[in-house]
Write a structure and sequence with these properties.
It is a single chain. This protein is about 30% helix and about 20% strand. The protein is an alpha+beta fold. It has a domain of about 140 residues: Alpha-Beta Plaits (2-Layer Sandwich), CATH 3.30.70. A hairpin with a 2-residue loop joins strand 4 and strand 5. The N terminus and C terminus are likely disordered.
Length: about 220
């Protein structure tokens, strides 16, 4: 589909409904001097859009390809108790994980990166958790749980597994926020107003970030 009236779409209120598909919505650009024409894809850019997630994954895959096979990799998941205050949950997740990486049990961790996954709310509220790939020795799950409970005050469910022989673990973590099939499944049937609530909470936020250890960042 070629959109000739793309200028009428206001970016502040754009949603998936403004485009028949982010895959085939384009606008044609033509040089007035030489007549050369080419098309520019038009996408809604929303985190809940499966089509945009696909392009976002390609960008992230290129950015993090040097971490494809991290040495001594571990896969860590940290959860937070459900709440209806989504912005607070995201802030707490980022802040508490930052503090956790400065604690003694992480002193031998060389570095890593993490993604923040948000799932639509149930009767108990939104579900926010962190998925991280870290490079370092194995840390007992019980100790991480104790530290996480101490930092969050109410959350203790964590999981850590050996990912040294897990193929493409980095791409797997990227997929939590940019896998087309996963995004489609996660937000299927969710009301538009609830999606907008999520979009507002994550606006201008990086849901995938390097994991600094202390005040330094050592690559894998």
């Amino acid at each position: 589909m070629v959109r000739k009236d793309v200028g009428r779409v206001r970016l502040k209120s754009v949603s998936e409904e403004d485009f028949s598909s982010c895959v085939d919505s384009v606008v044609w650009i033509m040089c007035e001097e030489c007549g050369y024409k080419h098309y520019v894809p038009i996408r809604c850019g929303r985190r809940t859009c499966p089509d945009c997630a696909f392009y976002r994954f390609l960008e992230m895959k290129e950015k993090y390809k040097r971490f494809k096979n991290p040495r001594n990799a571990k896969f860590l998941t940290l959860t937070l108790k459900r709440s209806w205050d989504l912005e607070d949950l995201i802030e707490r997740a980022i802040d508490c994980f930052k503090k956790l990486r400065r604690r003694k049990i992480f002193r031998k961790v060389k570095g890593g990166f993490y993604s923040i996954e948000v799932k639509p709310p149930t009767a108990e509220g939104w579900f926010v958790h962190i998925h991280a790939v870290i490079s370092g020795p194995f840390i007992p799950e019980g100790k991480i749980s104790e530290e996480w409970k101490d930092l969050t005050g109410d959350s203790y469910i964590v999981k850590i597994t050996d990912a040294r022989f897990r193929k493409n673990i980095v791409y797997y973590v990227l997929g939590y926020t940019s896998n087309k099939a996963k995004i489609k499944e996660t937000w299927k049937g969710v009301p538009e107003w609830r999606k907008e609530k999520f979009e507002e909470a994550v606006k201008n936020r990086r849901l995938i970030q390097p994991a600094l250890v202390g005040n330094t960042w050592d690559e894998f």
